[in-house]
Amino acid sequence: KREGDTGSSAVQVIALTTRIQQMQKHLSIHRKDHSGRRGLEAMYVTRRKMLDYMERKDFEMYRRVVQTLGLTRTPPVKYIHNKRKDQKKILEKRKNKKLMLKRKKKKAMR
Protein backbone atom coordinates (compact mmCIF):
# COMPACT_ATOMS: atom_id res chain seq x y z
CA LYS A 1 0.00 0.00 0.00
CA ARG A 2 2.54 2.60 1.10
CA GLU A 3 6.18 2.76 2.17
CA GLY A 4 6.76 1.59 5.74
CA ASP A 5 3.39 -0.16 6.00
CA THR A 6 3.61 -2.86 8.67
CA GLY A 7 0.05 -3.02 9.97
CA SER A 8 -2.03 -4.10 6.99
CA SER A 9 -3.17 -7.70 6.88
CA ALA A 10 -1.37 -8.38 3.62
CA VAL A 11 1.98 -7.25 4.98
CA GLN A 12 1.47 -9.21 8.20
CA VAL A 13 0.66 -12.38 6.22
CA ILE A 14 3.77 -11.91 4.09
CA ALA A 15 5.93 -11.35 7.19
CA LEU A 16 4.44 -14.42 8.88
CA THR A 17 5.06 -16.51 5.77
CA THR A 18 8.71 -15.46 5.81
CA ARG A 19 9.00 -16.41 9.50
CA ILE A 20 7.28 -19.75 8.79
CA GLN A 21 9.73 -20.53 5.99
CA GLN A 22 12.68 -19.68 8.25
CA MET A 23 11.30 -21.89 11.03
CA GLN A 24 10.71 -24.76 8.59
CA LYS A 25 14.34 -24.50 7.50
CA HIS A 26 15.46 -24.43 11.15
CA LEU A 27 13.33 -27.48 12.02
CA SER A 28 14.68 -29.45 9.08
CA ILE A 29 18.13 -29.14 10.69
CA HIS A 30 17.07 -29.31 14.36
CA ARG A 31 14.49 -32.09 14.30
CA LYS A 32 14.15 -32.36 18.09
CA ASP A 33 13.24 -28.70 18.64
CA HIS A 34 9.73 -29.36 19.94
CA SER A 35 9.09 -25.86 21.25
CA GLY A 36 10.03 -24.51 17.84
CA ARG A 37 7.55 -26.90 16.26
CA ARG A 38 4.80 -25.63 18.59
CA GLY A 39 5.71 -22.07 17.63
CA LEU A 40 5.47 -23.03 13.96
CA GLU A 41 2.00 -24.51 14.51
CA ALA A 42 0.94 -21.28 16.24
CA MET A 43 2.23 -19.27 13.28
CA TYR A 44 0.22 -21.45 10.89
CA VAL A 45 -2.94 -20.79 12.91
CA THR A 46 -2.30 -17.04 13.08
CA ARG A 47 -1.66 -16.84 9.33
CA ARG A 48 -4.82 -18.87 8.61
CA LYS A 49 -6.88 -16.48 10.77
CA MET A 50 -5.41 -13.44 9.02
CA LEU A 51 -6.11 -14.97 5.62
CA ASP A 52 -9.70 -15.72 6.66
CA TYR A 53 -10.07 -12.08 7.75
CA MET A 54 -8.63 -10.84 4.45
CA GLU A 55 -10.92 -13.14 2.49
CA ARG A 56 -13.95 -11.60 4.22
CA LYS A 57 -12.85 -7.95 4.13
CA ASP A 58 -10.80 -7.50 0.94
CA PHE A 59 -11.14 -10.47 -1.39
CA GLU A 60 -9.05 -8.96 -4.21
CA MET A 61 -6.09 -8.39 -1.87
CA TYR A 62 -6.55 -11.91 -0.48
CA ARG A 63 -6.36 -13.42 -3.98
CA ARG A 64 -3.27 -11.37 -4.83
CA VAL A 65 -1.45 -12.34 -1.62
CA VAL A 66 -2.32 -16.04 -1.93
CA GLN A 67 -1.25 -16.09 -5.58
CA THR A 68 1.99 -14.21 -4.87
CA LEU A 69 2.97 -16.47 -1.96
CA GLY A 70 1.79 -19.64 -3.70
CA LEU A 71 -0.43 -20.68 -0.79
CA THR A 72 -3.23 -23.21 -1.15
CA ARG A 73 -6.47 -23.36 0.79
CA THR A 74 -6.89 -26.46 2.92
CA PRO A 75 -10.25 -27.13 4.55
CA PRO A 76 -10.29 -26.94 8.35
CA VAL A 77 -10.32 -30.13 10.36
CA LYS A 78 -13.83 -30.54 11.78
CA TYR A 79 -12.81 -32.77 14.64
CA ILE A 80 -9.96 -34.97 15.73
CA HIS A 81 -10.90 -38.61 16.07
CA ASN A 82 -10.25 -39.69 19.65
CA LYS A 83 -9.50 -43.40 19.42
CA ARG A 84 -9.10 -43.93 23.14
CA LYS A 85 -12.57 -42.61 24.00
CA ASP A 86 -14.11 -44.62 21.18
CA GLN A 87 -12.32 -47.76 22.34
CA LYS A 88 -13.68 -47.24 25.86
CA LYS A 89 -17.21 -46.94 24.47
CA ILE A 90 -16.81 -50.14 22.45
CA LEU A 91 -15.51 -52.07 25.46
CA GLU A 92 -18.35 -50.73 27.61
CA LYS A 93 -20.93 -51.88 25.04
CA ARG A 94 -19.37 -55.36 24.91
CA LYS A 95 -19.41 -55.58 28.69
CA ASN A 96 -23.07 -54.53 28.81
CA LYS A 97 -23.95 -57.07 26.12
CA LYS A 98 -22.31 -59.88 28.08
CA LEU A 99 -24.19 -58.87 31.24
CA MET A 100 -27.49 -58.84 29.35
CA LEU A 101 -26.82 -62.32 27.93
CA LYS A 102 -26.00 -63.67 31.41
CA ARG A 103 -29.26 -62.21 32.79
CA LYS A 104 -31.27 -63.76 29.94
CA LYS A 105 -29.68 -67.17 30.58
CA LYS A 106 -30.50 -66.94 34.30
CA LYS A 107 -34.13 -66.04 33.54
CA ALA A 108 -34.40 -68.92 31.06
CA MET A 109 -33.09 -71.40 33.67
CA ARG A 110 -35.76 -70.42 36.23
From TrEMBL:
Annotated Pfam families: Ribosomal_S15 (PF00312)
Cellular component annotations (GO), alphabetically ordered: cytoplasm; ribonucleoprotein complex; ribosome
BP GO annotations: translation
Claim: Ribonucleoprotein is one of the keywords in the record: yes
UniProt-annotated stretches for the region Disordered: 85-110
GO-annotated molecular function: structural constituent of ribosome
Superkingdom in the source lineage: Eukaryota
Gene3D superfamilies noted in UniProt: S15/NS1, RNA-binding
Alphabetical list of InterPro entries matching this protein: Ribosomal_uS15, Ribosomal_uS15_bac-type, uS15_NS1_RNA-bd_sf
Record key words, sorted: Ribonucleoprotein, Ribosomal protein
Family, similarity comment: Belongs to the universal ribosomal protein uS15 family.
Xref: PANTHER family: RIBOSOMAL PROTEIN S15, BACTERIAL AND ORGANELLAR (PTHR23321), SMALL RIBOSOMAL SUBUNIT PROTEIN US15M (PTHR23321:SF26)
Listed name of the protein: 30S ribosomal protein S15
Species of the source: Grammatophora oceanica
